[in-house]
Amino acid sequence: MSIETMKAVGLYRYLPITESESLIDLEVDRPTATGRDLLVQVKAISVNPVDTKVRAPKDRVEESPKILGWDVAGIVKETGADCTLFQPGDEVYYAGSITRQGGNSDFHLVDERIVGKKPKSVDFAEAAALPLTAITAWEGIYDRLGVAKDPEANRNKTILHIGAAGGVGSIATQLSKLAGLTVIGTASRSETVDWVKQQGADYTINHHEEFLPQLQKLGFETVDYIFCLNNTDQHWENMATTIAPQGTICSIVETANPVNLGLLKNKSASFVWEFMFTRAMYETEDMIEQHHLLNELAILVDSNKIKSTLTETMSPIHAENLRLAHEKLESGKMIGKLVLTNN
């Protein structure tokens, strides 16, 4: 019996994106769904900073190709024997697992417990822009920072998003407004300031300048929550200075050097990490929470309470376009999300 193959984009060597072999077109075996896995026909994918971090130059050489891509929207083609949440034909969206092959391929295997039903009101491209950033923002705000979903509970409470114009920041701003928080976003260019305000931010400050004087001009001495989405090392002292007593800071960006936690002691302030792959990576008991939150997010999208942050679309999904996408991401100038589609 002949083995079916599929097209994919991947790598054997970890190279600068300017190298033609940094991402290459491949023909690989098409996988089969078993257990709780779904086989999804990929209709659209989005690129994220995690893609460029995984692909970043290093000495390792892969014996079999490494496929990236952790934002997918598509159609379920097969279900494993233990699947109970989906059936063939369902339209889905998800971010997948960092410990498995990514979704930059014609078909992709994913555990159903981290998959949601695609919002009905948006196309595959708009849906593919959502999962990774929305899961990160949702977990960061509700699970890590402990923000209540009831707007009444958040009356007069403030949140500062550092790097508010990026993919996570754009969704985090919308979710924070939905929760009734006063939202302050950092942005340093006129176009990013405009974008952050379009997402619902009440105020903006410049992350290249000292935070406290800018907040004081807006009438704030401290903020109750800080969600750091850019360069934890660079902003650490600014965060420690401006967090409220008994406030909480959450970051998604790893530190290059140790940071001084002692700066938070007198305020009894908390610091916590958010990594949206944790539940899938460790198959935690509450892994299915990502299925639930993606379904809840779809309802918010369909009721026009949350909007996709798609800003650019490319087609088709092949190595040349993905290299261009990675290059745009690495420029540090991306606003919102870039999506590639298979027509």
From TrEMBL:
Family annotation (PROSITE patterns): QOR_ZETA_CRYSTAL
Domain Enoyl reductase (ER) residues, every copy: 16-340
PANTHER family (UniProt xref): ALCOHOL DEHYDROGENASE RELATED (PTHR11695), RETICULON-4-INTERACTING PROTEIN 1, MITOCHONDRIAL (PTHR11695:SF294)
Signal peptide positions (record): none
Domain of life: Bacteria
This protein's name: Zinc-type alcohol dehydrogenase-like protein
Xref: InterPro entries: ADH-like_N (IPR013154), ADH_Zn_typ-1 (IPR014182), ER (IPR020843), GroES-like_sf (IPR011032), NAD(P)-bd_dom_sf (IPR036291), Quin_OxRdtase/zeta-crystal_CS (IPR002364), YIM1/Zinc_Alcohol_DH_Fams (IPR050700)
Keywords: Metal-binding, Oxidoreductase, Zinc
Organism: Caldalkalibacillus horti
Family: Belongs to the zinc-containing alcohol dehydrogenase family. Quinone oxidoreductase subfamily.
Pfam family, any one: ADH_zinc_N_2
